[in-house]
Amino acid sequence: MSTMRAIVMEATGGPEVLTLAEVERPVRVNAEFLVRVVAAGVNPIDAKTRSGKGAASAIARYPVILGNDFSGVVVESPYESHPLQPGDEVYGMTTVPRGSGSYAEFLAVPSTSIAAKPRALSHAEAAGVPVAALTAWGAVVDVARAHAGQRVLIHAGAGGVGHFAVQFASYFGAHVIATGSARNGEWLRDLGASEFVDYNRLRFEDEVADVDVVIDLVGNVVDDTGRRSLAVIKRGGILVNVPSGSWPTLMADAAEAGVRATTYRVPPDGATLAVVSRLLESGDVRVFVDQVFDLEAAVDAHRSLETGHTRGKIVLRVAGD
Q1: Structural domain of residue 77, as residue ranges?
Q2: Single pTM value for the model
């Protein structure tokens, strides 16, 4: 079999540019795996790239296949003694458009970007983990160094990255304050938030002060959320901004406010994903999948994502388990 089904786009634009096509199946080279994709995560970066922002400037040629998250089954392993062999269930993250994406039946992916799928998770659940969890881990653990006694404000706590950020910060002992809509308040407390601020009813800066860390998953694109966040950070604290392109004046604004700030970009790190796997297996961390769409309904998945009201993750079902 030399071809596969995939969702491709011939140009950037709205969700309607995503179409189902028959394309050439990728060929594994060097230390890559060939994986049969069972499920693929849908992330904000996918929608941004599709619309002409995000990573779109790096698209060398069309058609292009989007999708960074995947869960599936090994078809070909890099070498005979590798711990992961054909038939093993794996999940991980690829980098689009440097490589082909996961909205497809097969994917060639570097061995450093992959880990054994947690047995406790279905493929749909596992596909919702890599990008969101690795991003949250990088922002909360690697950059903010979450620990007991620390006060951490997490904006958009109910989103894909947000619901992992709340859990990681809580797991490492931080006092977590999450913002979100009222329907998510109790759920976020169940995930580990000590305090919840309904952004539709309250101004978070009236409720929160002297935080050590702001995990900014909104930016400055809605109601000056970013700039308002700078005012609640204590001396020596830091703001970690995650959404790409969401706050072009971040560093200047932070310097004016006298606080530290940084952006964060997630690497496809299979070793860190393996650590996250242990937390998922033990039940200390959970993934929530809000909606699952069939591969051919990728347009609907993107439209749902862009409403901005998703709890947890959206996933594409590429094949049967």
Answers
A1: 3-129+287-317
A2: 0.96
